[in-house]
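The instructor's notes for this session suggest beginning with a concrete chain rather than abstract definitions. Hand out the sequence below and ask the class to guess, before any prediction is shown, which regions might be ordered.
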Amino acid sequence: MNIEFTFLSLIIIIASYFIGCINGAYIFSKSVKKEDIRTYGSGNAGATNALRTYGFFSGLLVFLIDFFKGMLAVGLCYIFKQSSFVILLSALACVAGHNWPIFMGFRGGKGVSASAGILVIVDYRLALMAILIGFILALITRMVSVGSLTALTLSAVFFIVFKVDIFYIILSCILCILSIYQHRLNIKRIINGNENKLSFGKKDK
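After discussion, reveal the predicted structure:
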């Protein structure tokens, strides 16, 4: 267990929060569409709402922006040889920046894309396996929330079962809990049978 923490560690964690604040959906809607995506659809500044509001390619672009910022936050830790404890804190700071960005009045997204990027760089084999299962379920049910919750839940399960670093297990569990909290309204709609479903025929506008 490595819990080494330096001043550089603190700088990286703070930087990770602001990296998380780079919200793909908000930037895209403001710069390209000249509007705030939070006034449309679910009101969420994330890839799923961008997909529903603007179409597949717009949603994909937003997903990639948020996915790679998660990878960047953890990647900085690897570049500067930080401990797994610092990786845990930096990853959570990045997701916090996405969910509660200071520049957007603390109204961001749900953190799924950023969490996926984080988990892939931490252990790509376990993360990709979980994401693939979640993706298949999302296609079958046509509910992105089902796929997202499944992917993050399975990531936590896989990290525990395959006994990765304890701080990575803690990270995966916290990301799962955060996702469940952020999707609490979606979960209610799933239970009630009225969760929003994707229409695969929608074109970009």
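Then share the key points. Residues 8-192 form one domain. Residues 45 and 160 are 31 Å apart (CA to CA).
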